[in-house]
Design a protein that fits this description.
2 domains, 3 helices, alpha+beta, CPE0013-like fold, three-stranded antiparallel sheet, binds iron/sulfur cluster, five-stranded mixed sheet
Length: about 140
C-alpha cells in the first residue's frame, strides 16, 4: 500500500510517498533524510506542536498565543487544546516563559509565544513586591 503525505519539517514541503507493503517501509520524494525520518515517524507515532491561545485576566489584551515546546502525540492534540480553556495568565510574561511544565504529561512544556507586557496594575504590584523585598533587606541589617 502506498501512502502520500507532505513533509512539514521545513517550508519546502516535499511530497512524500511511503510504500508500506515492503518488508520495511520505503520513503521516496524526500529531498533530505529529515523527511524520511518524518515519514517513518508519522506511520507509528504522529506528533504535532500545539499552537493556540489562552485567556489573559488583566489589561487590554484578551488572549495570549501559546505553543508547546515540542510536538505532542496527534491523537491527544484536541484534548490538549481543549484543556487550555482552564488556563489563564497575568502580565507580565516574556515570550518563551513557561506557563505549564509537561503539559498534561505529554512531554512538552506550554510556553508563551509572544511578550505580554506589564499593565499599570501588574507594574504597581511588582513595584510593591520589590519594595517589600527592600524592606525585608533593611530589617535584616
Ligand atoms: S524532506 Fe527535507 S527538504 Fe523536503 S520538506 Fe522535509 S525537511 Fe524539507
Amino acid at each position: 500500500m502506498t501512502k502520500t503525505m507532505t513533509c512539514i519539517v521545513c517550508p519546502r514541503g516535499c511530497g512524500l510517498e511511503i510504500e508500506t507493503a515492503e518488508p520495511s517501509p520505503r520513503v521516496s520524494g524526500a529531498a533530505c533524510k529529515r523527511g524520511v525520518e518524518y515519514a517513518l515517524r508519522e506511520l507509528v507515532d504522529p506528533r504535532r506542536v500545539l499552537t493556540s491561545t489562552v485567556r489573559v485576566t488583566e489589561g487590554q489584551r484578551r488572549r495570549l498565543p501559546v505553543r508547546t515546546t515540542a510536538p505532542i502525540p496527534l491523537p491527544r492534540l484536541v484534548e490538549a487544546a481543549r484543556a487550555l480553556d482552564a488556563v489563564s495568565v497575568r502580565p507580565p510574561l516574556a515570550c518563551g516563559a513557561i506557563i505549564a511544565h509537561d503539559w498534561l504529561g505529554l512531554g512538552a512544556d506550554l510556553v508563551a509565544a509572544d511578550d505580554l507586557p506589564a499593565t499599570e496594575a501588574s507594574g504597581a504590584a511588582l513595584e510593591a513586591r520589590g519594595r517589600g523585598a527592600d524592606d525585608d533587606l533593611e530589617q535584616g541589617d
